[in-house]
Automatic annotation (TrEMBL):
GO terms assigned for molecular function: lyase activity
Residue stretches making up the ABC transporter domain: 18-263
Gene coding for it: phnK
Coiled coil: none
PROSITE patterns referenced in this protein's UniProt entry, alphabetically: ABC_TRANSPORTER_1 (PS00211), ABC_TRANSPORTER_2 (PS50893)
Top-level lineage group: Bacteria
Topology of this chain in the membrane: Peripheral membrane protein
Gene source species: Chelativorans intermedius
Pfam families the UniProt entry points to: ABC_tran (PF00005), oligo_HPY (PF08352)
Keyword flag Transmembrane helix: no
NCBIfam families: CP_lyasePhnK
InterPro entries recorded: AAA+_ATPase (IPR003593), ABC_transporter-like_ATP-bd (IPR003439), ABC_transporter-like_CS (IPR017871), Oligopep_ABC_C (IPR013563), P-loop_NTPase (IPR027417), PhnK (IPR012700)
Localization (cell): Cell inner membrane
Similarity comment: Belongs to the ABC transporter superfamily.
The protein's name in its UniProt record: Phosphonate C-P lyase system protein PhnK
Amino acid sequence: MSALEAVTAPRAAVRPLLRVCGLSKSYGETVGCVDVSFTLYPGEVIGIVGESGSGKSTLLNLLCAQLEPDAGTVEYDVGGEGLRDVFCLPEPQRRRLMRTDWGLVHQNPRDGLRMDVSAGGNVGERLMAVGARHYGAIRGEALDWLSRVELDGGRIDDRPKHFSGGMQQRLQIARNLVTRPRLVFMDEPTGGLDVSVQARLLDLLRGLVREMGIAAVVVTHDLAVVRLLADRLMVMRRGRVVEEGLTDQVLDDPHHPYTQLLVSSVLQV
Ligand SMILES: Nc1ncnc2c1ncn2[C@@H]1O[C@H](COP(=O)(O)OP(=O)(O)OP(=O)(O)O)[C@@H](O)[C@H]1O
């Protein structure tokens, strides 16, 4: 464990949830990400920032096993029994992780929701994937989750294609969190929304993540998002991590010239 990780790791849980070593991916001649390593502890939120094309999505897709790396490993504490390389898990077990222990919040809610299934069905489907069978209990839990993400319970039978972008994103969050995952991957969770909708959604997300003690990897180009959500921050440029540390430290006192540029360009807005 690095000195930084020792400081930021929750004391009661020093066993890592996710350990990433030397992760690299190229697309032909184009660099996706290069030699990325970090460790994430239960309940910790790490932000990954960088300009467009810096490799954030590539890294996220590697972490949640949607993309195979050229080199490096992604290890996850499967079933609380210790770290295992996710790329060496049998496919059904990897898929099960995705349905139960992990959540994935896409920038575009259309990628994370079933638009032709009711709001309640979208939430209930995840519960059924972890074994829930009682219709009344599933509907009750779905209703509870709609209220937790501030959606009107009266819309439970409506399809998300009739919801606003902000409402769809809140439903996607409910669908992901209802199974109480230990780790959630978020790709620009407030991207594409109005500023006022973004602020409320961020507040809601922060509350839920903290309250449920969920660990998260949040990819964004928006420094305000990581300021609010992330304990730690990694800054990427051209596929490499150029700076990392506690979020406030990195944003208030950036050392790498590229981070300084990112921070100052936001201040000038
Ligand atoms: N499927 C792909 N095929 C070829 N090149 C790709 C592919 N996906 C990403 N790249 C390239 O890899 C590099 C990193 O892209 P990536 O999407 O990971 O960056 P990003 O930081 O997430 O950007 P953005 O914020 O715009 O989504 C870019 O040069 C991009 O063009």
